[in-house]
């Protein structure tokens, strides 16, 4: 009968809720210990100047190697870490590891101009500025070797504190980049106020190219704007030869996407840094595309 069914449905619903809550609780507890247990890894995705084929930099992307769940994707634990107030700890680990890796790569003779690190809006504080200064000094890195990627969300509060931290970071000499550009629903006025060096156009615009001419016009507009503001434009999420052809004609600063490489462990990145690696790859892609 309906009443009984209703109750069963409720029970089933409650069971699922409990399951979900348990899973979340488990993830929370494990995430709190992920850094101290050495479960985090950095992977790197190369950024390529299409005109020369050279690698302009690499973005560090954090991976959580969970003993039972395997690799947990960042979308599942970065927001959780922010909620739990442990993003600072994770972010500091990422920053230190990325700078160590860059130093190590260079000591092995690899030429890598810069490494990009994602920074959550919640990390942006005076303490963070000190950590950045300390990391650069410990690794004896030129400050412009480090690019900090922030999303437009950091501009929403638009408070003086955020502005002071931006300026302090820029005064250290690190480069500041806006990640996922175009998805933030914020006013564009921050582009002239903040001391930025780079915009990363979001993957959704790249996908929009395939949907007809308007997508192309929008992207051309963003590129023109970046040029006139003297900001480097990096394109993320390039997957096809057609997309590559579009952007190589537009002369953007660098391209990052599965077409060239997914994010890989640092050992594998070394192979991608060998001179001529991507130049040859670009020739192949262009030959196939036109032939
Ligand atoms: P993001 O910073 O915009 O990074 C780009 C994401 O797109 C990465 O996903 C990358 O693997 C993926 N990607 C790159 N090329 C392609 C492509 O051609 N096609 C497709 N479909 N995807 C591509 P990932 O590694 O899963 O990271 C997701 C997000 O998690 C990042 O987006 C970033 O917001 C966040 N994240 C990653 N590492 C960190 C970190 O250390 N700290 C913080 N705060 N956030 C991080
Ligand atoms: Mg990023
Ligand atoms: Mg991005
Ligand atoms: Mg993104």
TrEMBL record:
Which residue intervals define the domain EAL in the entry? Answer: 24-277
Its protein name is cyclic-guanylate-specific phosphodiesterase
Say which species the protein is native to: Chromatocurvus halotolerans
């Amino acid at each position: 009968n309906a009443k009984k069914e209703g109750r069963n449905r409720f029970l089933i619903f409650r069971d699922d809720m409990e399951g979900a809550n348990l899973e979340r609780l488990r993830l929370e507890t494990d995430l709190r210990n992920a850094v101290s247990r050495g479960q985090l890894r950095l992977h790197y995705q190369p950024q390529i100047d299409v005109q020369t084929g050279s690698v302009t930099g690499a973005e560090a992307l954090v991976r959580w190697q969970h003993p039972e769940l395997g690799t947990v994707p960042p979308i599942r634990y970065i927001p959780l870490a922010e909620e739990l107030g442990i993003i600072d700890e994770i972010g500091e680990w990422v920053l230190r590891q990325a700078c160590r890796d860059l130093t190590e790569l260079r000591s092995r003779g690899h030429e890598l101009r810069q490494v990009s690190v994602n920074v959550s809006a919640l990390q942006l504080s005076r303490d963070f500025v000190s950590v950045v200064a300390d990391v650069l000094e410990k690794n004896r890195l030129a400050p412009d070797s480090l690019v900090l990627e922030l999303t437009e969300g950091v501009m929403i509060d638009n408070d003086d504190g955020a502005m002071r931290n931006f300026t302090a970071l820029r005064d250290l000499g690190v480069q500041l980049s806006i990640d996922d550009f175009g998805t933030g629903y914020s006013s564009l006025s921050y582009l002239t106020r903040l001391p930025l060096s780079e915009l990363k156009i979001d993957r959704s615009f790249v996908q929009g190219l395939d949907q007809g001419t308007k997508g192309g016009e929008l992207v051309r507009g963003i590129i023109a704007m970046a040029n006139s503001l003297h900001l480097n434009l990096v394109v993320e999420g390039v997957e096809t030869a057609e997309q590559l052809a579009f952007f190589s004609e537009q002369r953007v600063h660098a391209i990052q996407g599965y077409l060239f490489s997914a994010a890989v462990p640092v050992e594998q990145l070394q192979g991608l840094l060998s001179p001529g690696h991507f130049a040859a790859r670009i020739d192949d892609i262009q030959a196939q595309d036109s032939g």
